[in-house]
Amino acid sequence: MKTFDIQKIRADFPILKREVNNKPLVYLDNGATTQKPKAVIDAIVDYYTAMNSNVHRGVHYLSQISTDAFEVARRKVQGFINAEHEHEVIVTKGTTESINIVASCYGRAFIGEGDEIIISAMEHHSNIVPWQMLCDEKGCKLRVIPMNDAGELDIEAYKALFSERTKLVSFTYVSNALGTINPVREMIAIAHEHQVPVLIDGAQAVQHIAVDVQELDVDFFVFSGHKMYGPTGVGILYGKESLLNAMPPYQGGGDMIKEVTFEKTTYNELPFKFEAGTPNIEAGICLTAAIDYIEEIGLDAIKAYEDELLAYATDELAKVEGVRFIGTASHKSSVISFIVDGIHPYDIGVILDKLGIAVRTGHHCAQPVMDRFGIPGTVRASLAMYNTTEDIDNLVQGLKRAVQMLK
Amino acid sequence: MTINEIQDELIEDFAFYQDWMEKYEYIIQLGKEVPLIDEAYKTDQYIIKGCQSKVWLYPELHDGKIIFTADSDAIITKGLVSLMVKVLSGHTPEEIAKADLYFIDQIGLKDHLSPTRANGLLSMVKQMKLYALALQAKG
């Protein structure tokens, strides 16, 4: 394993030096979005300073270099998740759009009345609502994998959900609200025994865990740039070539066509078939810098460090009177969700903010998870590679102060 | 006291607290003093949408004046709704509908007025004015 120099890493993230409410920033809302290293910020500035031009269109020099850079990023992503082909990597606006593309296009072609889609009880709204919309339109049904009190999916119940009508399984790799790491390999294999394709929401996984889509044998894999130290407004839809080819396009427009007449349009090949219109060029290109940064430090080293920090944070928070953890799975990643007896999470969030500590409070776009635990929401501290034990100590001190005020 | 007299008094009260923590402690204290809504009205009908926490607000017309009662499951939010009730309750629908709530800015809670803020102070103000307009039309 490479050595993990936390001070050097922190120095790479300019925003970590700022103050909030006259206190040094303690940023623990990484599940919502991560901060960006200087390399990514520089790449964004470089793009507009030296390269800005539309992609896949012009014969002029700038258009050629921006197109090249955009395609370099695609290959970078291909390598990052070990996709077999670069055209299996579709550039989207983000995880949400990626899921909507599959719901819309795979759904349009392969899912009909009476068919069933399996999701899990711990999904983010963006992996629930697109399927509900499809169900409303097509008359298909959602089946939901239940979870236990620790926030772990019930695999036996999952097996029992399959029927002749099951057309797709879609669930998250890591829960944004609970931190649970699901046994994706095993769950994909189970779906494949029934010849059912699987979509994995990797939005909370790719920044913490090395992903190999071929080894997982996953059919669709989606994630966002902004949660992995990259720019906002860009995400990825990975799909197996055969599936993507069999799906109709998502939106019509420029770049996704081969030939257009008023009588008929022939669609472009992968990946462009799913990339109608001008993409977020800057963000797409700057994914390269984000992935380079992650790979330079190494996901194994990042995971080992974050796991240690998670264990430390869990131990320290457990010492605060009244703290109850929501999500105590045996396999967890960098998310600590908790409530304090008798205190609303919102109140805690307000006081922590005044102390310069950024956490998320509320239902984390996963209302069914909160309903499952019978709570209005949680306080969520979510870690990234630049967080430290001092950040955790500050959180614990801040929490004690908040509890004192709010009790 | 008129709405503006109450606002001026609150501005004076808050000026006394320099430190944000004291301000919040005062808001929390105000929350404990809010005239509580009858449990029977703690229904979806009287929930104010747009808050991360739940806020219930009930208006009642007494001798031409609106009396507000409220509650919230978060105590800072309860303090904020209490502030609004303190200022607006006991006035005529006309007075409430046209009230200029300058005190929010002056006591340093302007941040809380942005429509995207999770505490829904703006939703509270809107809802109270809507109730006033509705009761004005009735009266």
Automatic annotation (TrEMBL), chain A:
Its EC number is 2.8.1.7. The keyword Cytoplasm does not apply. Residues 26-395 form the Aminotransferase class V domain. Belongs to the class-V pyridoxal-phosphate-dependent aminotransferase family. Csd subfamily. One of its GO terms (molecular function) is pyridoxal phosphate binding. It catalyses: (sulfur carrier)-H + L-cysteine = (sulfur carrier)-SH + L-alanine. It comes from the Bacteria. Keywords: Lyase, Pyridoxal phosphate, Transferase. This is Cysteine desulfurase. It comes from Sphingobacterium wenxiniae. Catalyzes the removal of elemental sulfur and selenium atoms from L-cysteine, L-cystine, L-selenocysteine, and L-selenocystine to produce L-alanine. InterPro entries: Aminotrans_V_dom, Aminotrans_V_PyrdxlP_BS, Cys_dSase_SufS, Cysteine_dSase, PyrdxlP-dep_Trfase, PyrdxlP-dep_Trfase_major, PyrdxlP-dep_Trfase_small. Its cofactor is pyridoxal 5'-phosphate. SUPFAM superfamilies: PLP-dependent transferases (SSF53383). One of its GO terms (biological process) is cysteine metabolic process.
From TrEMBL, chain B:
This is Cysteine desulfuration protein SufE. InterPro entries: Fe-S_metab-assoc_dom. Residues 11-129 form the Fe-S metabolism associated domain. Belongs to the SufE family. Pfam families: SufE (PF02657). It comes from the Bacteria.
